[in-house]
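Q: Predict the assembly, please.
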Amino acid sequence: MKLLRAIVRPDRDREVVRALEDAGVFALTKVPVTGRGRQGGAESGSLRYQELAKLMLLVVVDDDQVDAAVSAITRAAYTGYPGDGRVFVSDVARAVRIRTGETQASPREGGLAR
Amino acid sequence: MDADELCEVYLVVRPEERRAVERALDAQLPPVVTSFHALGRGRGGGLRHEGATGWWPFGRARAGEFLPKVVFYLAVPARLVDDVVDAVTTALRGECGAVDHGLGAVFVLPAEREIPVHPVRASVVAGAAS
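A: Predicted assembly structure:
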């Protein structure tokens, strides 16, 4: 199980969500954030924006869905201009569905539980 | 996972259950937590109710709609993770009768380390957590 933290342009929201749906990934959490990348923000004329509006997607997927999900996000979020965002992939030790108590653990933690 | 290994914990819950989660966390941990508003949906692909329900009183909602959520983010030693998860899930399932969808999820990730910005504050927290 992996957690994908994808920082994308907020205006690519619908495209990214649709691409994830096409990849079979429906569960996700969206967080509006502000951020900047290597360019340190953006310049428009004499104005300099230190940080820009971004959307952070938190997506937990099974290991065999990681490549498809990352590919869906990167494809849908792509514009080719600086500021398209990043995707970070982390291991998830455990995931608990609160309603049922059903727990999924990584193999390191002993696999499925409860 | 070692008992002292640090874990990141994400709790994704309904906004109206913020207080229940805070109470559950307060009973287990020092009050060190970060929370933020978010929109979310589960593996079912979002809200599919047509019409008001007990917890969604606003009438029609489109299928696939994202709903407001609150995400709690905290870093705790592995030995405390079970207690935190149990306290939160028990509190929420108790309040809602464990029947509704959309109660949320808990994700636990191994964290490499936590570097406190304020060392005095951090030592207080570490002492209370142990």
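Chain A touches chain B at residues 3, 21, 26-31, 58, 60, 90-101, 108-109 (CB under 8 Å). Helices of chain A lie at 13-22, 66-77.
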